[in-house]
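Give me the fold.
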Amino acid sequence: MKTVAEIRRDNLNTLVSRAGSLAELNEQLGRKRNHPSLGQIRNRSDRGNGTFYEMGDKLARDIEEKLGLSYGWMDTNHTPDDWPDDNIINLKRINIQACCGSAGIQNYEDDAFVEQIQVSRPWFQENISKIREQGYELITASGDSMEPTFRNGDLIVVDRQDRDLKRDGVFCVLVDGDLYVKRVQRIPGAILFISDNSLYRPFEIPIKEVEFRLQVLGRVVNSMNLKRYD
C-alpha cells in the first residue's frame, strides 16, 4: 500500500503532466516558474540530513484550493477518469464557530471544514465572479438579524480575499469575539454595523478601537438561499 507521501507525489506528477510542464504548474499556483520545491518533491531529493523532500499537509491543501480541487484530492489515488469536470467549481463550506478563539480566527483546516459544495462554472461566473475563482468560502447564516436578505440556515458566499472596509458592503466580521454578518458603513470617527432586520439596532466601533476589537473575515458577495415550504 502506498503512503500518503507517495500518493501525493503521483498526483503531483499528474498535475505537471496536465499543466504541460513544472514551470506551467508553478505559474498556475502563483509561484515563480523556477520555484524549486515541487521539483524537489517530484524527484524525492535528499535534504542532506538523511531525509527526503515530501509534500506536507499545508502544501497539499494549498494546491487543492488554488486549482479548484476537492479537499483531500491530493491524498487519494486517482485514475485518469477521476480528473474533475472543468465545468465544476468546488466551494469549501466551513464552520466559522469551530475556529473562533480568544485570538480571533484560528487555523481551521481540520476542525472547521465541513464539506465541499459543487457549483457549475457558468453559475459561479454569473453569481459570484467572472474574474477570480479562488478565495471564496461558504458559511451558514445563523439567526434572523439579516432577514429578509439572509435567512437562518442560508449558505453565504464570503470572499476571503476582500477585507477592505474602506467601501461599504456586507461583511462577515468578528467583533469582541462574536461573529456577525452585517452591513458595514464608515462614518466620521467610527465603523457602523447595520442589520437588515429593523428589530435590531445598529452599533458602532470607534476607529481607535478597531485594531483590537474587530477582525474582518471577508466580504459577503452572494448567498445560496434555501427554498422553504411552510
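Helices lie at 4-19, 22-28, 37-42, 57-67, 121-127, 207-213.
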